[in-house]
What does this fold into?
Amino acid sequence: MSAILAIAKLDAAYGETKVLSQVDLSIEEGGITALLGANGAGKTTLLRAICNMMVKVRGEISFMGTRIDGRATESIARLGIGHVPDGRGTFSHLSVEENLRLGAYTRRDRKGVADDFERVYTYFPRLRERHLQQAGTLSGGEQQMLAIARALMMRPKLLLLDEPSFGLAPVIVQEIFRILGAINRDEKMSMLLVEQNANLALDLADHAYLIETGEIVMGGEAAVISGNPSVRRAYLGY
Amino acid sequence: MQAFLHQLLSGIATGGIYASLALALVMIHQATHHINFAQGELAMFATYIAWTLVQAGVPYWAAFVLTLVFAFALGVFLQNVVLRPVQNAPFFSVVIVFIGLLVIFNSLAGWIFTYTVKTFPSPFPIRAWYGSNYLSPHEVGMTAVTLVVLVLVFAFFRFTNLGLAMRGAAQNPAASRLVGISVGRMLALGAGLAGAIGAVAGIMAAPILYLEPNMMSGILLYGLAGAVLGGIDNPWGAALGGVMVGVLENLAGAYVVGTELKLSVALLVIIFVLLFKPSGLFGRSIVVRV
Amino acid sequence: MLGIMAALALAVALPFVVSGYRVFQFTMVLDYAIAVFGANILTGYNGQIALGNGAFYAIGAYTVAILMTHAGMPYWATIPIAAGTCFVAGFLFGLPALRLEGPYLALTTFALAVATPQLLKYHGIESWTGGVQGILFDKPDAPAGVPLNSDQFLYLFCLFVTVIMFVLGANLLRGRTGRAIIAIRDNPTAAAGMGIDTSLYKSLTFGVSALFTGVAGALGAIVTQFVSPDSFTLFLSISFIVGVVIGGVATVSGAFFGALFVEFVPNYADQISKAAPWAIYGALLIAFMYAMPTGVVGLLRLIVRRIDPQWAIRKDAGKQ
Ligand SMILES: Nc1ncnc2c1ncn2[C@@H]1O[C@H](COP(=O)(O)OP(=O)(O)OP(=O)(O)O)[C@@H](O)[C@H]1O
Ligand SMILES: [Mg+2]
It folds into this structure.
């Protein structure tokens, strides 16, 4: 398998504060890669760096063989990277349906878009029920579903997910992870999954990386990582 | 009663002008959180372009359309060239840039077109064709034109993907970029649209107010008052607020204090309303979960 | 401290080295500096946008003119009364205005500025205000025995008042009150949580701002010996806010740079282009904002920090 996203020697900083240093990471095409790390390790920052938003970036990022570092956020999105940011970032004054329409904004295939509305409503029936409701008034879990659904409407080739389980009840987390697995299986959509819940993430992912204070300290197949004794102690709690 | 009806209707007619400007202000405000103090002067300048075209023999409606194109381009140009460099500057610095644009266009208009007051043609028949003298034909036509413009603008924002993208970009620029929307382009488009809407207001107001470089300064204030009265984050409310200001101003002038103080009285009433509804009559107050 | 002394010495020497009209212009610079400082207290330090301070300037000026012509008061005695009147007026205006924020407050203060000339022209109060004509009165002379011409004397008188006002203002901002005013700007909820009566302080700030602006208006009237509705248009209010931003939002010394801009740049623009002076003025405004988005003082601080990175730290340490 080849890498859909390859990152080499990546530094990232907010103003003068350096957060990532010399990050090397690659994501297998069609796979799910988990990115694990403690609070403040730099996971969110890495996702932001990929999309060139809010952080100053140095280093190489290639997506499907083309360099994307230095490109504008919107043009990176147009290339096929969907990003479900932390804190979800939905359009809170717009309706559910309008949020989804914006997800598909750059697409020109009307038929495909109509099909995808059907598809995401099938994944998330709750969103169909509430398609006219203002996004800002949805429950936390529903907003998370909306954020994922909106990214799916882009038909991205790579989906970046920043803690999709954050603040959600275990049942809902299970549900969302099940759906992510299904999407990955059915549509061969590659994913980079940032998670605090290492158990769940390592179950779902085929590869994983560990990040500590801005540096990648370990990377490899998910099964190998979850078998590592120090990982078990630090992240899996046994 | 007749006289009252007359004042009321003519208030609605001028209110349409204020509504247009209020809408233009709200569009910019939603996207940038700034009040474009130069919006009125841009409209005035565009009206001079229309005047020049008409003088040069261009048919009225052709001049009208050409002027809107000009005003749109001017709005885009100013957004991209003058305002973009200060988009990260402190709030008040941007306010000063808008004030700078205001005096520049006011002064340029005086320089290029002189300060002599000019008459401006109305495209509507001189004699009323509807057998009533509540409103002059120009007032009727002007109301119709503003109404058409407002409906078009709202339809654009409501029903087109581009309009939706503009709303999204105004509301949440970061999320917009993540779905591939170029926020810079949306801002420019918004500035262009606002410019064109303002130009309509200027062209429609000119036959009544006569064309001179300070023609729009009062209208800017009324437009702002309308926007604030209706709620600066609600385009519909702002437009309605503009109409209300027109009516209020007209009635105050006719019945309460005379033309000398009508501006002050109208403003006083608005401020009074704001004390009870600090975010305007139709200001948005939805609960946003975070 | 050394810098302030040097500036003061320079200011005292000034009327003896430049010619008559220049002295008048620099008198106006001092006058505007007080007004700009007043606007800055409200806008810069307290975060309430002040687009209508020209109204308080007008009240201060008219108070002087009316007291001097109708009550025969000496010019110097009218200033405290103008200050008091404006404080009350500002405080009262601030009471309702404190419910408003952002564009809503902007409109309200803007409206105040627009309405001012109209109200001053109102014929019901013509016997006091002189209506459209305004009021003309006599130029105060230097007290007998003081070897100064009246321009020089007025300049030094203004300088004296300016020093008093800035010492008072700077002390106010440095003390408890100032900290409360700034806390309200930065985080109103937290300020209220700390037990600061935000409503009271916001109204008080309006009053203080109006007081400063009113004193400036009073001095302005004394210096020009003339008040009329058309001297107090919207443009005056806008000039103050321009002065605030050009000098530096939330800075004390910025007021002087702002005042220099307000007084001299229009003349300068007029010299460059007689045809469209205000276009030049506007272009200069925008150019200033590009070159120094944080104002003259902001730029100076940046330069000092570039040269001596420890400066700010030492300065803060010195304060404690
Ligand atoms: N906008 C910002 N400006 C300055 N520093 C920031 C900013 N965002 C994050 N940081 C800092 O960068 C570091 C990494 O933050 P980041 O959000 O990437 O962590 P994270 O791994 O996502 O943590 P968490 O699991 O808590 O979400 C932290 O020290 C944080 O304080
Ligand atoms: Mg994070």
Remarks:
- The longest strand of chain A covers residues 3-14.
- Chain A has two domains: 1-80+160-238, 88-155.
